[in-house]
Amino acid sequence: MIEMKVAGIALDAVSRNPVILLRDESERRALPIFISNEQARAIIVALENEDSVRPMTHDLFSNLLDDWELALDRVVIHSLKDNTFYATMTIKQGEVTKELDSRPSDAISIALRMGAPIWVMEEVVADASIPVDREADEAEKEAFRDFVSNLSPSDFAQKGRSSNQ
């Protein structure tokens, strides 16, 4: 799993629909997830720490967790099927842990309010992420190619002997 942070909300240039952007720690990969206007608003409220006169649904859920002394341990975006992302929220109370099925946008909105980490399965990142820093990716590939091209069979034999001693 890869921990990701909310980089922000953007508008898709073609559809004009909101997209939440998650970024990995190295800020080399971004995961775009299309969401509705209402979901975007709930996430923006959490990102900007806005207070509302009355609790919104995500605030209500967060308040419920707090009042019942439940902790949102983490959010995991675990799969992508037919262009739809799937997530779970892991809730803990003492030693008891429960996983709740959730839309990623709701889970992210609540995670932002509760300060919980957002994790994405590596397969999802591989399938749906977009590169942010193409130059760094290319430099890393070139460095790896150079490393592999300079290897010889004796390098493996040498390492094998030293690790067994």
UniProtKB/TrEMBL annotation:
Q: Which residue intervals define the domain BFN in the entry?
A: 1-132
A molecular function (GO) held by this record is:
nuclease activity
What highest taxon heads this organism's lineage? Bacteria
| UniProt xrefs under InterPro entries | BFN_sf, Bi_nuclease_dom
PANTHER family cross-referenced by the UniProt entry: VON HIPPEL-LINDAU DISEASE TUMOR SUPPRESSOR, VON HIPPEL-LINDAU PROTEIN
Protein name stated in the entry = Bifunctional nuclease family protein
